[in-house]
Amino acid sequence: xxxxxPYPPPPEDVLEIGAPEQFAALSHPLRQRLLFALGHxxxxxxxxxxxxxxxxxxxxxxxxxxxxxxLVHIAGTRQVRGGTEQYYQRTARQxxxxxxxxxxxxxxxxxVAQELDRxxxxxxxxxxxxxxxxxxARELGETLAQLVDEAEEHAEDQPVHGVLVALYQxxxxxxxxSSA
Length: 180
Prior knowledge:
By secondary structure, the protein is an alpha+beta fold. It has helices spanning 20-25, 29-37, 45-51, 56-68, 102-118, 134-149, 175-178, and strands spanning 14-17, 72-80, 83-90, 94-97.
């Protein structure tokens, strides 16, 4: 098969994001979408450009930034008529941002918004604010993480669905805004 990479699927591991170059790499929506696209199987620059409706040179530039930040790597190569094709792969199946930074978070939300806009199926998006004790918030966070981690994947011929989980505590209003 011409479009199948010549190596096994990525390992089941977790990468914690924390280095400045990683946050810089995550601060662009196309790089977020590239990471989404590489979530299940390695791909070449040409395959990614076609999948994301982008220009090959632009995709190559953003892959280089992701590679330099340690978020993707070259997982294999294959000789083709015009030279050598490189297959890119995420360095981890799951990437966890322990202390999110505004630019990376904004880019991730922008990338998710683009994915939602392009979705051919009905989407589900809910924002709800709850009053929770610290213990209940921790319990909810653990339950959500477990639910996502334990979701069973189906065969490769099934569509890919994105799941974004966020649990955060709202900042309290400052005295200047609460007295107005």
